[in-house]
Specification:
Blueprint lengths: L5 E9 L5 E9 L6 E5 L7 H12 L3 E5 L18 H4 L4 H16 L9 E6 L1 H8 L9 E5 L14 H4 L7 E6 L7 H13 L4 E6 L15 H15 L1
Parallel strand pairs: 3-4, 3-5, 5-6, 6-7, 7-8
Antiparallel strand pairs: 1-2, 2-4
């Protein structure tokens, strides 16, 4: 799906607490295009997410993929072999929210498209973060998540989407793998019921036989599911 021409660049964004973090931004020449903040998995600003931002740009969506590790790692460009684990252990939800705010402001600025409608999309760890941006004050037009963990990761986990749905303020699009042993179809169904009960417009899709990370790590083995998810996202943003 190619609708326009995209230009891409690496950028350094600055959050309200002074954190400077790496980002990869694409702008499209499609008039009136929306914008999307891409929230990666635990690898941070991995090359896959830079390629995804460019793909969004070519599909007529301004995009910015962000890194989580500006507070503990260098903001220099990194390869696929980046050792993310010691940095991930230090990530806090409230800090990531500041970075998402900076990315949203960036998309709304003249240097990144001046968009009027902003969405988020996240993967795994980023999927949960993306879902929960629906509680933010960012004025988002919608949130998209791939296999974000829905249930509590520990007793009293207040960041579990099932515990926060009552505060969601925008539509939700969620993608899950039917063969994911940790985020099961039952979890996805519970999420749908909770969103319905809260009066939140939602589309929850479960792909039979698809594993966790079917879109970002094993997409070549699950092309049908990945391609279907890709076609649903632009429709959700119209």
């Amino acid at each position: 799906m190619v609708l326009g021409t995209a230009s891409a660049r690496h950028a350094i964004l600055r959050a309200a607490d002074g954190n400077e973090f790496a980002a990869f931004a694409t702008t499209t020449d499609v008039a009136g295009a929306p914008g999307i903040v891409i929230l990666p998995d635990v690898r941070g600003l991995h090359p896959f997410y830079e390629a995804l931002a460019l793909r969004f740009g070519e599909a007529g969506v301004h995009a910015v993929a962000i890194d989580y590790y500006g507070r503990t790692a260098s903001s220099d460009r990194r390869g696929a072999d980046f050792d993310w684990e010691p940095h991930f252990a230090q990530v806090r939800d409230e800090d990531v929210s500041l970075d998402v705010t900076a990315a949203s402001d960036f998309l709304r600025s003249s240097q990144a498209g001046g968009v009027a409608r902003v969405f988020t999309v996240g993967f795994c760890f980023g999927g949960r973060i993306s879902f929960n941006q629906a509680t933010s004050d960012l004025g988002l037009a919608g949130v998209i998540g791939f296999y974000g963990r829905i249930v509590e990761e520990r007793p009293g986990d207040l960041s579990a989407p099932l515990n926060r749905v009552h505060a969601y303020r925008c539509p939700v699009l969620g993608f899950f793998g039917g063969a994911d042993p940790k985020i099961t179809p039952e979890h996805a169904a519970a999420f749908r019921r909770a969103l319905d009960a809260a009066g939140i417009h939602n589309e929850i899709v479960v792909y039979d036989g698809a594993p966790h990370s079917f879109f970002d790590r094993t997409f070549t083995d699950h092309e049908a599911a990945a391609n279907d998810a890709w076609t649903r996202m632009p429709r959700f943003m119209i």
